Amino acid sequence: MAYWLLKSEPGSWSWADQLAAHETRWDGVRNAQALSNMRKMAPGDRAFFYHSGKERAIVGLVAISRSFYPDPEDAKSGLVDVTSVQSMPQPVSLSAIKVDPAFESLALVRQPRLSVMPVPDDLAQKLLKIAGL
Q: What stretches pass through the bilayer (predicted)?
């Protein structure tokens, strides 16, 4: 099982929206590197749900329930389906991540505009621990 991080602007798609929908497709990704990351996702992988914008925090965990497939509404994009797993007991803020030297190689720190990124297993376990899981 691999770990990923998916960014969403709460005004467009929030964690509350994800919980209400339970399973949905992850769409709207246009960046080539982010799409390449999505192509590597497999059912059963986990993804941290990150609120961008003002909040800037990991607020939930989703499971990849369907691997990459073409977006029928946008030939330049693609989709994966995600299913809600659980809310983070303690959201993990970007500021908390940035002050910990262990995360200096994390794409969230190095490439702040990238919307879909891998999270190495050791850092995923550390994030889960910080979140209280």
A: none
